[in-house]
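Long-time lurker, first post. I've been practising inverse folding by hand and with some scripts of my own, and I keep getting stuck on stretches where the structure tokens seem ambiguous. Below is the full token string for one chain I'm working on. Before anyone asks, I'm not after the true native sequence, just a reasonable design that respects the backbone. If someone could post their per-position residues I'd love to compare against what I wrote down in my notebook.
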């Protein structure tokens, strides 16, 4: 069995993306799909002493093509003052809220380099860098990643994912939970491709400050628990790829195997 999954670029991704990533053999970095205004392509949350804080990468609306995430430009990337404003502001927010976290020092140099020393022109470039950075820390970087911008895929929504499977020789696919809203299972039945909708159970773990907040950036987990413990926490009470491959939890398991 070869499992395919994928996701559009997201800034400082949440825990569920890395669980989804851990469930596949090949992952498609969907950097040529449409930009989702108000979604998580260019923002995410960290925890503060007051309430969750959104960190948002500013988008150049005049220069960007919103039909293609690979053509989303970051506002002010040519202007040092504008660039310093958002990049250094994000780094300062991380520094203020996590400098006392147990594993902050372990990752602080690389994070500071990401925000202070690099120039980010396109949103997809920043998200690609961050994804690989976090995958390396979580030791999930043994999974093959295919950039849509470097491979000729066709279709939209479920047809696009079906095309991923066919061209990458996958016979199973993992969708996020919202895939149920648009996936036509019959299309996959015809191609004998198993379908699974992720059911991520968000873990509870020790955070800075009082109370517990769900759905924060992976930064929150990593800086509080380190790399090895973080991947354990993500997988706790959630299905693993080995379990999935041996299970009949695929929504069309009976149809494919009858």
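-- Answer (accepted) --
I ran through it position by position. Result:
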């Amino acid at each position: 069995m070869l499992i395919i999954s994928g996701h559009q670029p997201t800034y400082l991704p949440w825990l569920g993306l890395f669980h989804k990533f851990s469930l596949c053999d090949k992952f498609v970095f969907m950097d040529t799909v449409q930009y989702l205004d108000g979604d998580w392509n260019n923002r995410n949350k960290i925890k503060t002493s007051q309430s969750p804080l959104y960190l948002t990468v500013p988008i150049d609306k005049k220069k960007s093509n919103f039909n293609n995430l690979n053509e989303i430009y970051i506002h002010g990337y040519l202007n040092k003052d504008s660039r310093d404003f958002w990049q250094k502001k994000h780094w300062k927010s991380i520094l203020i809220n996590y400098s006392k976290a147990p594993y902050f020092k372990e990752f602080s140099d690389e994070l500071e380099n990401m925000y202070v020393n690099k120039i980010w022109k396109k949103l997809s470039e920043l998200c690609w860098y961050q994804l690989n950075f976090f995958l390396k820390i979580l030791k999930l970087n043994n999974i093959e990643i295919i950039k849509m911008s470097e491979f000729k895929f066709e279709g939209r929504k479920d047809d696009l994912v079906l095309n991923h499977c066919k061209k990458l020789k996958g016979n199973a696919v993992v969708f996020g939970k919202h895939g149920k809203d648009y996936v036509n299972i019959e299309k996959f039945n015809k191609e004998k491709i198993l379908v699974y909708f992720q059911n991520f159970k968000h873990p509870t773990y020790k955070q800075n400050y009082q109370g517990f907040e769900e759905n924060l950036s992976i930064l929150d987990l990593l800086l509080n628990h380190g790399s090895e413990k973080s991947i354990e926490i993500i997988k706790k009470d959630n299905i693993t790829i080995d379990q999935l491959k041996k299970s009949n939890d695929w929504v069309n398991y009976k149809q494919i195997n009858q």
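A couple of notes from the structure itself: DSSP finds nine helices and seven strands in the chain. The domain at 3-46+124-257 is CATH 3.40.50 (Rossmann fold). Happy to go over any region you disagree with.
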